[in-house]
Amino acid sequence: MTLRDLEALDRETQPGRRAVVIGGGLIGVEVAEVLLRRGVSVTFLIREDWYFPMALDAGESRVVAEHMGTHGCDVRLGATVSRIARDGDGAVRAVVLEGGAEVACDLVVVAIGVVPNTGFLATSGLRLSAGGAIEVDDALRTSAPDVWAAGDCANVTWSDGSRRPEQLWYTARDQGRAAARSMAGEDVTYRRGTWYNSAKFFDLEWTTAGWVPALINWDNTPLDPGPGYRSWFQRVPGRPLTQRVVMKDDRVVGFNLLGSRWNHEPLLEWIEAGRTLDWVLTHLHEAQFDEELSEPFRVLPDARVS
Questions:
Q1: pLDDT tens-digit profile of 223-251?
Q2: How confident is the model over 30-63, as pLDDT tens digits?
Q3: Are 223 and 291 part of one and the same domain?
Q4: Is 176 helix (H, G, I), strand (E, B) or coil?
Q5: 242 within a domain of the structure (yes/no)
Q6: How many structural domains are present in the chain?
Q7: Does residue 221 lie in a domain region?
Q8: Are 79 and 171 found together in one domain?
């Protein structure tokens, strides 16, 4: 999305209009929140069977979708878009779903993924990945002498050996620092540490750290996280408040925490230390922010491991 896109969206968001947001990620939910606050009715179309499956499981997604509904957002799961219908003057009038159903609207926002904006480099001689990202080595040098790349446009090596861009603000910061050191002649090898992130689904806090495997693919087919993975999960009754701890064999490798604020640093330390589930559950309250405002963490009787 460019600045001109945002300016156009700002002009079009008039109270009483109807919008469709396509795509179930963080940008989509932020756009939906802004539009609703502007007095625009919003239908949120998500292709998968649950919202944000790359980061949430079915239970967590249900909590988020219910919460968005309380804010007036019409969340529709398993909705595959066929085309955008226009009137005789070319203005948007509806989004047509597979099967022929129509969702009437005046405005459509498509937020279905991040694509590096590197089209202007097509004839530059720089080596690009199949997805358009700029290929870099471990020191963030490109294929051209004295040219470095960092941030969303750079194709870097992940901990699992795959190569793709890292679409996070803090990795862009870290890559920028590494690239600067490389430019200054230092011997640099960029590798991101343990994954972490935080965001809000409207006013619902979300904190994640470590390895939280996706369980369904973009086409709604199940994904196998591999042998030895289990999750401990609980939801506070009647509230959009959940905690999930992911284990590999007998060691904690990830956290997914909804509905309250958490400090990443101890979570990352516990993952690096290879703590057990029992140890983590005993100490998890130590990672809470705003303890005087948040409900203290406790293990509930119906918490389960699956």
A1: 888 899 999 999 999 999 999 999 999 99
A2: 999 999 999 999 999 999 888 898 899 999 999 9
A3: yes
A4: helix
A5: yes
A6: 3
A7: yes
A8: no
Both 32 and 124 in a single domain? no
CB within 8 A of 205, min separation 6: which ones? 198, 257, 258, 259, 260, 261
Q: What is the pTM of this model?
A: 0.84
Query: Is 261 inside a domain boundary?
Result: yes
Quote the tokens at residue 267: 């979570």
Query: Which domain does 256 fall in, by range?
Result: 202-305
Q: In residues, how long is the chain?
A: 306
Same domain, 45 and 138: no
Summarize pLDDT for 116-143 with one digit per residue, the tens. Answer: 889 999 999 999 999 899 999 999 999 9
Same domain, 220 and 149: no
Contact (CB, 8 A) for 17 and 107:
yes
Q: Are residues 290 and 233 in the same domain?
A: yes
3-state secondary structure of 109: strand
212, two tokens: 């939280």
**Residue 14 burial by CB count (10 A; 0-12/13-18/19+): exposed, middle or buried?**
exposed
With b for 16 or more beta-carbon neighbours within 10 A and e for fewer, the 149-178 pattern comes to bbbbbbbbbeeeeeeebbebeebbebbeeb
User: Which residues are CB-contacts of 184 (< 8 A; sequence separation ≥ 6)?
Assistant: none
> Is the four-CA dihedral 3, 7, 8, 10 of positive or negative sign?
positive
Q: Closest Cα to residue 62, out of 79, 46, 80, 50?
A: 50
Q: Which residues, 6 or more positions from 131, have their beta carbon under 8 angstroms from its beta carbon? A: 115, 116, 155, 164, 165
Asked whether residue 189 is assigned to any structural domain, the reply reads no
| 3-class state of residue 279 by DSSP | helix
In degrees, rounded to 5, the angle at the alpha carbon of residue 31 between the alpha carbons of residues 197 and 214 is 40
Phi, psi of 83 (to 5 degrees): -165, 170
- The rounded distance, in Å, linking the Cα atoms of 211 and 208 is 9
Task: Assess contact for 103 and 20: CB atoms under 8 A.
Answer: yes
